[in-house]
Structures are given as C-alpha cells and as structure tokens.
Design brief:
This protein is about 25% helix and about 20% strand. The protein has about 400 residues and is an alpha/beta fold. The radius of gyration is 22 Å and the shape is globular. About 35% of the residues are buried.
Length: about 400
C-alpha cells in the first residue's frame, strides 16, 4: 500500500479537484498549507484522499465552531424521483405534470389564457399569476399545443438531462413511456450525500412521502451506497447506512404516531418524542406519511407532514425538502410545529412563510435536474438563514 500525505486544504480546492474525480494531491502547494495542529481558518476542511480502495482521514482541529447536525426530511416524488408508481406516471408524464405547475399566467378580459412569464419558477411572478395546472389540469399534449409550444425546448432539455447514461439497470434506471432509460433517483441527490460526507458533516436523511415508492427508492439508495451507481462508485467508501425497513406516521386530533416494526412512538404524553427519535437517527431512513389526514384537512398545512423545529436546540437543524411546500398555507404539505420553550413540550403551528428557505425548501425540480449542486446550495442557504433566524430570536 502506498503512503498517503495528509494535509488540510481549502474547501474550494476540494470542490474543484477531489469532487470532480481529480484525486491527486497538490504537492506543488504543500509548503503553503497549514500543518496539523496549527490554527486553521474556519473555511478550511479536512483533507480526504482515496488509495487502494480506502479513504483515510486525518483528525485536524478546525477553529472553534462546530456546525449543527442536519436532519434532512426529503420528499420522494418530484423531489428526488421523477416518476410515480401510484399514478402510473412515467418520467415524461411526471415531468410534464410538474412543469405545468411552475409556469404562470392568467385568464384575461377576453376569457383567454395569457402568459405572465416565459420562465418557469416555483414562485408566481406577480400577485395575479396562477399556474397553468391549477386552471387546466393535466394535459399530456401540452407541449405540442399552441399555449405550450413556447416551453417545449426547456422541457425537452430537462428530459434529456434525466436520461440514464448506459444500458438499462433494473435498480437505478426506469423505462419511460418513450422506451428510453431514465435516472430513478436524481444525480444531484447522490451529490448531496457525497458532498456532506466529504465535508465531515454529521447528518441524516429521512425520506418522507405519502406515496408508495419508498421501498424501490431505499433499495436503489442501498445499492448505490454499495458502489452500484456507475457515476458515484466512490459512495461505497462512505460510512452512511441505509435502513431498508420503512416506518409510517399517522395523525389524528389527539396525537401523532410513528410506528416501525419494533417501535410505536406517540406524542400523546410527550410531544417531543418523535422529534427526539428523529434526532437519534443516522444514515437514511424512510417513512410513509398520512395522505388521508392531509385530504381530510383540505390539503392545507394543518393536515400536512408533521415537522418539528426547536430553535432552542443549538446542536441540530431540521430541514424539509418537498415540491408541495408553499410560501402560503392555503395549500401546503408540511405542518411546522415549533417548540415554544427550551426543553418544553408546548408547540405552536408556524406559518410556512416563517421558515421558507430557512427550514422549508420548496423543491425546484427543474433546477435539481439541471444543476448537480442544487440541493447542497439550498442546504447552505438554509443554514445561513437559520443562523439569522436564531440571532433575531435571541435578540
């Protein structure tokens, strides 16, 4: 086995070299790097290098500040997966359906549809704008219609970016309506996992869906983490386990119950119980949320996926990523519950606007498809905004 030189390097160098597959050590600049035991700038990170199928890590002190553990609650459909077995939507239909929800217009005085923006966006461009889907519903021929033709090139470009780069893989690819193979899980999601691990972050991922895709997604993630993904073979070097046994979350007026094969956790006597359980998890886990409860509450945040935030807990930040998060509460799939006192059990329902892009991320699926670093940049944005939120709260 060849010897490894250990040094700390700037985070930008890691992103530009190591994470793009250029694993060579920068020997020409070793002399200018800080040595182990010296005081390091806050932006410095630990240097990782792979050799002979191993990653070795040097314990280097980083100045003063330890970042919070991240607990990432991640939706499945239209967040990391562009297909839906429950509705039998293939990749093309699922992308088309999503696309129609992020293009905006209005019915004008002549009772005709009028576009208010030619750029897709998760937020409306103005107060009077409504998305195309909310007015006309699902239209599989939309991009060949007079109204939709102007967006066809954007749609086709993103569909091409979803194509699987090789022969069919029964675990990691799906067959589209056109017979082509597409990614089952977005590459940007694997990039998120890899980046956080390389940064030495403590984090866990909780898949939270009201659908039926948990098992195949967890199976695909487990396979990829063993080195099965051709674009992310180095994931096998990471110690990030996948729990393939799923749990479920059910709500009623009295309590919220999380159940697994071996546990039943209720908020009836302790409203912090599920929050603390989530805090204790590591790796990737999956939970099916309560669709009927959301429907009975008119698809508002009140009946959405319960999501606890404790602003008095300095060691953890929870972040929820879901395409059905909204800035307003009239249609929202997440129910933010905020603890009102340090160590207390009382919670208040927070408006989504309080934590939007802070603890709540409305998935921009088109961006997640087009940009490999979409998720990691959104997480970084949330951490910065959460710091500001806590500072204002303490002030």
């Amino acid at each position: 086995m060849t010897a490894i030189k250990h040094n700390t390097v700037n985070a930008d160098w890691i992103m530009d070299h190591f994470m793009n597959g250029q694993n060579e050590h920068p020997t020409d600049c070793v002399a200018s790097l800080p040595t182990a035991g010296s005081t390091l700038p806050q932006k410095d990170v630990e240097y990782y290098q792979e050799t002979d199928a191993e990653w070795q890590k040097q314990d280097v002190p980083v100045s003063g500040f330890k970042k919070r553990k991240l607990v990432l609650h991640v939706d499945v459909n239209n967040t990391i997966l562009v297909s839906d077995t429950a509705t039998e939507q293939g990749t093309r239909a699922a992308l088309s359906s999503y696309f129609s929800s992020v293009i905006w217009g209005k019915i004008n005085q002549l009772d005709k549809w009028e576009w208010l923006s030619d750029v897709p966006s998760v937020l409306p461009p103005c107060d009077e704008a409504v998305n195309f889907y909310s007015v006309f519903g699902k239209d599989e021929d939309f991009f060949d219609s007079t109204e939709g033709r102007c967006f066809k090139s954007i749609f086709v470009d993103h569909l091409q970016k979803l194509e699987w780069p090789g022969p069919a893989d029964e675990i990691l690819s799906v067959t589209g309506e056109d017979g082509k193979q597409y990614h089952r899980i977005l590459p940007s999601f694997f990039w998120l996992i890899k980046t956080l691990c390389l940064q030495g972050r403590e984090f866990s991922i909780l898949l939270r869906t009201m659908g039926t895709d948990l098992y195949p997604v967890l199976h695909a993630l487990e396979f990829a983490m063993r080195g099965g993904h051709p674009q992310f073979k180095d994931l096998q070097m990471l110690s990030f386990p996948v729990n393939s046994k799923t749990g479920r979350i059910r709500c009623n007026k009295r309590e919220i119950v999380l159940s697994t094969e071996t546990e039943r956790i209720s908020t009836l006597k302790d409203s912090r119980s599920i929050y603390q359980y989530f805090n204790s998890l590591s790796g990737i886990s999956g939970f099916q949320d309560h669709f009927d409860w959301w429907a009975r509450n008119s698809y508002t945040g009140k009946g959405g996926k319960p999501f606890w935030v404790d602003p008095y807990d300095q060691n953890i930040q929870h972040v929820f990523i879901d395409d059905n998060i909204r800035f307003t509460d009239d249609y929202n799939i997440v129910h933010p519950l905020v603890f009102t006192k340090k160590g207390g059990i009382q919670t208040r329902t927070a408006p989504a606007s309080e934590f939007y892009d802070c603890c709540l991320i409305q998935t921009d699926l088109l961006n997640a498809i087009a940009n490999q670093d979409y998720f990691i940049k959104k997480i970084q944005q949330c951490e910065e905004k959460y710091d500001s939120y806590l500072y204002k709260l303490q002030s």
